[in-house]
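TODO from last week: model Spore gernimation protein GerC.
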Amino acid sequence: MKKWIMILCLLLLTGCWDRKELSEIGIVAGMAIDKNSETGEYIMTSQYLRPAAESTQTPTPEQPFLVVSTTGKTIAAVMNKANYTIDRKSFFAHNKVIIISEEVARDGLIPVIDAFQRGKEVRGHVWFSVAKDIEAKKLLQIKQEKISRVPANALSNLFENGEYDATTVDLLTYYKEVLCAGEDSVVGVLIREETDIEPYERVKLSGGAAFKKDKLVGFLDESETRGYNWITGGGASPVQGAMTLPSLLEKDKFVTVLLRALKSDIQPNVNEDGQISFTINVEQKLRMTGQESTVELQDRKEITDYLNDLQGEAEKKIEAEIKRVIDKAQKEFQSDIFAFGDILYKHYPKVWNKEKENWSETFATVPYTVNVRAEIISSGLLQGPFKPQE
């Protein structure tokens, strides 16, 4: 009996068999996936942290990160090879951003995300993006204006603070959308932007990359991305930012409003003849924060009428950008990035079963209606615009 008690105690006292000490692992903060156009091999660039350089006690003078590239025929092989490029075992669980080159995205991302999901080394909440007009690995090395000394952390913050003219999607969301029938994905786009001040370049989150199944089919500019976010509600992050409207009081003067609560809804409709259509309802709350005009409004009625006119301008702008992105998705991409098909399936499963085999063709011509309601919930107008006294 004493023998078994002793064995049980020894088992309970043992530590984690697979535990790795911090000094044994190389923490990857960011990843970029490119492809060698000549060999067809993947190029994975990893940004490793150097904890000693960020120490609050005795920091070293070296850079707080190390960028290393490895190549291979599959993503799984490249990730395994990364373990032999530095003096520590690569640890991907704290990775914050994955950047995919345009070439890799156009060839199809199933081989990429399959390795991430099957291997379980990369977590699903990592930000997922496409590099436009530049190699993905170069975006991990640009010395831009930033507070964070580690580029991957700065890139992650771009996604955290993304506004309504950009798309933010994590790896798990993209993975679910690829597997979902009747829905295609839009992911964030990172670009290199030149500046007039040192270091003369920076990385910017701008627009969206539209996919059809797992292949990149084109890009949305900032205006089209705003329309997309109004339809879908903003993806992983809430729609936020500032919108500029004409003042209406003076020519060439503008009003700035902040986007607040957004409510969007897509309703499928099937008539007696089997004709499919969709109704998109958008309600956007706004708060006025800037007024360039100095024209004085005389009474409360004038202020009310003025705010109603501004709301009308906001509604026209939102509706125009929504229609613009739908037309592009239908005519140029034939990609259902708004999940119309999935919504049709949930409301009319029998109709969807008849249409699903040729949904891309049906989506390209399906009619739709847009209803927008904008409301300024706070104007900041006490008696009218500020006006200097003579």
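Done. The mean pLDDT is 86.
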